[in-house]
Amino acid sequence: MDEQKTSTLLATERAMQPAVRLVTLACSAGVAALLGWSFAHLSAGAWLACALPALVLVASNLHYLRTHVLTTVGMIPVALFSLLPALVSVLETGLLGTVGRLACTLAVAALGALALLFGWWALRLRRAYVAHPQLAPDAALIVLGGAIKRGRPCTTLALRLDVAARSWHESPTRLVVVTGGPTPSGATTEADEMARYLRAAGVDGQSILLERQARNTRENMTLSCKLLDARGFAGQRCVVSSDYHLWRALREARALGISLTPMAAPTPPASILQQWCREILTILSGR
Questions:
Q1: What is the pLDDT of residues 251-265, one digit of tens each?
Q2: What fold is seen in the domain 140-268?
Q3: Bridge partner residues of 152 (DSSP)
Q4: Can you give the pTM of this predicted structure?
Q5: Distances (CA, A) of 183 to 2, 13, 36, 44, 189
Q6: Is 268 strand, coil or helix?
Q7: Which of 83, 110, 113, 191 has the most CB atoms less than 10 A away?
């Protein structure tokens, strides 16, 4: 499929898959080696205090690898952060020489600073929305697209659609705009599969508008609003997306001079760390 027809971020992640897998597996092996060495030199309580967070992060990434066809760049920060408590366990043994202790301390400081940066950005992303926004009875809900797997919206996208469907059922005079271009196979579009999901959830097809061209967040906003403008819609416009994504969606809307009310959908528990880290990396890379 022509890369110009698909998400630019998704194309980048596909190219980075070997690197993501290598970093993830290398960090997992590093955690195992560090914890294995410190096990014999620390008390059970001290070792567990370091081992548990490290192993949780490793398990989270390995589970993501097992359950997803494509890797995500968000796995890289999770892999790096798993090294932090493992390195602390080695420092706590007190058995390192001067050079080893200095190197280990510098690595802990660097990873700690990176973790603080990501934590600060996560708080910024969380402040972009409220849990229960005030919506007009005739509001338009713009649902941002996502991956289609085996002909159905992925879990992340399904949760966005569930939020929109519940909102429509509360007030059937609302419009739902589904936005997303061709899937990688080219056989359908994200918008068509999203509309199919909403109709199965009981949303009247007359209330659904399809935008089938957008390849990224900016195009989601621009093309969806053009669709509403062409319809003569002048009411409240809302954007429905995953909680981690709303900050960037609203930034794009402001850059386009569009005022949108954010509606947050939850992130699937199994991929919370990876998705939030992916979003922060996306922002830090200037996208």
A1: 999 998 999 999 999
A2: Rossmann fold (3.40.50)
A3: 149
A4: 0.88
A5: 11, 15, 45, 51, 5
A6: coil
A7: 191
